[in-house]
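User: Can you predict the 3D structure for this chain?
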Amino acid sequence: MPGPKTFEIDEQESGRYQGVIVGTTLSTLVLTLYVIKADGTDTLIRGPQQTILNANNVTVSAGGLITWLIQPADTTLVEVVPYERHIALFEWTWPAGAGKHEVVLIVRNLRRVT
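Assistant: Here is the predicted structure, written as structure tokens:
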């Protein structure tokens, strides 16, 4: 899964994010989902390092396709702002190494849309 990706979604909506991990059989796969608030502090939504290897709404195919079924709790706003960035950090290990990938959910506050 190269480079950070962005994914637009409305607040409290479900969605689907997919990516491919190229490598050998995974040993671990974890997710930390957090928000960096306006004051610079962060708030965890999932994690730290919630196990998601074929668990917690995430599946991984034999070919390395990761499918994350985003839940309304993942897109619930922490602050009252027009848009909020929910940062999903995927981290994995396999026998020969490790990797990371970041996805930024751009969550739109429907009450603030004009």
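The mean pLDDT is 91. Residues 5-105 form a domain with the Immunoglobulin-like fold (CATH 2.60.40).
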